[in-house]
Structure formats: structure tokens, C-alpha cells
Amino acid sequence: VQRNGFGSCRCTESGGPEPGVGCAGRGIITSINLLEQLGAYDVDQELDYVFYDVLGDVVCGGFAMPIREGKAQEIYIV
């Protein structure tokens, strides 16, 4: 699920259902929960930052999950 990227960055890409078939927000929730279960955020991973790139329009509540669940300490809107 994770790969080493440039400069020792840990990279994870998660997809969602085909457009019009399912809820992409649910895919975000499932992805973050899986990463937690796999220990991706554990202290031994020595992470300095975790970035989420999610849609800004809230079609369903799933896109706001990292914010609602306290998974983000700071939020930047670009």
C-alpha cells in the first residue's frame, strides 16, 4: 500500500469507485482506516508530516473525514 518516494518520502495512493457507481467519500474513510490498521501512522514510522489531498466540494461527508475525525491538526485550502 505504501512505497518509498523521492527523498525517503512515504507515498500512498488510494483510489475510489468508478464515477457514478459508488461513494468516493467512503473510499477515503476506508483508506485511512486501513492505513491505521497497517500501522502507517505509528510512532516507529517517524513521520514528520502527513498530507491528504481530498476534494474540496463536500458531496458527501466522507471527504471531510480527516478533519472531522481529528486526523488533521492543521488544514490548508489551496
Task: Provide a descriptive summary of the structure in words.
23% of the residues lie in helices and 8% in strands. It has two helices and two strands. It is α+β, with helices and mostly antiparallel strands. It has one domain. The chain starts with a strand and ends in a 10-residue tail after the last helix.
Give the SSE layout:
Elements: E1 2-4, E2 10-12, H1 24-37, H2 65-68
Summary keywords:
2 helices; 23% helix; two-stranded antiparallel ribbon
Strand content: 5-15%
Strand order, biggest sheet? 1-2
The tally of structural domains comes to 1
Listing every helix as H and every strand as E from the N terminus to the C terminus, the arrangement reads EEHH
Distance between the termini: 27 Å
Family: Belongs to the NifH/BchL/ChlL family.
Organism: uncultured marine bacterium
Pfam family, one: Fer4_NifH
Protein name: Dinitrogenase reductase
What is this structure, in a nutshell?
InterPro entries: NifH/chlL_CS (IPR030655), NifH/frxC (IPR000392), P-loop_NTPase (IPR027417). With 78 residues, the chain is of the alpha+beta class.
